[in-house]
Structures are given as C-alpha cells and as structure tokens.
Amino acid sequence: MAELAYRTDRRIAAGEYIDLLGRSTLGARRPIDRPDVIAGALEGSDVVVTAWDGPLLVGAARAITDFHLHCYLADLCVDESYQRQGIGLELQRVLRSLLGPLCKLKLSAAPAAAEYYPRVGYERNDRAWELPPGRPLA
Questions:
Q1: What range(s) does the N-acetyltransferase domain occupy (predicted)?
Q2: What does pTM read for this prediction?
Q3: Residue 9 lies in a domain
Q4: pLDDT tens, residue by residue, 36-77
C-alpha cells in the first residue's frame, strides 16, 4: 500500500460512495440501493473528507456543520480491508482541522463502533434525541 492521500477538494459521485459503503460495515445501515438518496446526502453535506490509495477510495467522513458551534459527523466509513490502520482517526483529524476552535463534533455510533469512539476521545451524551422518519410531532 502506498501512502494514502487525504482530500477535501474533490466531491465524489454517488456510485463511488456506494461502492465504498459496500466495502465497509456502514453499507448495511445505508440505503445503498437508492443512489438518489445517497447523491442527495452527498450534495447536502458541508464537508466530505476522503482517503485514497492511489485511485481507490478507501475511506470517507461526511459531515453537516456550521463550522463554528456544531458539526455532525453523519458517516465515517473505511473499506474493511483497510480498517485498523488509523484511517478513520485521520479522517476525523482532517475534518476537525476545518472547524472553529469552539465547534463540537457529534455523531451517532453504529452498535459495532460504540467502543471505538470513547477510545479516541469522544464523550457519551445521554441527552441526544431523534425523531424517526414518518413519526408525527405531537
């Protein structure tokens, strides 16, 4: 493996992202059979940090942020054959370098990744809430 390149200057196509999701554990929790939804998610993202091994996309961090107070890390995915090499951590470092000094990085962890985030510095927040799709507000 050559030295990886981390980029923030190249938007990726939905097909490229779907391919990466399929090679990562995140593919099981994203609608990879709906390229229109994935394309919309990419288009609506404020930041997409990517990791490349030559021409191969091996990792991505997709975020929605105001850059000053809050940044939601919507997706963090690394090709399974490239995991445990620090790629996910470096994607987060690059993302964080783009944020202001008071900006909090927030995420919802997949069950399999729940032990990872405290090890790299995240704190649990038990006050987070979500409204599932289709559920009306009372």
A1: 4-138
A2: 0.92
A3: yes
A4: 999 999 999 999 999 999 999 999 999 999 999 999 999 999
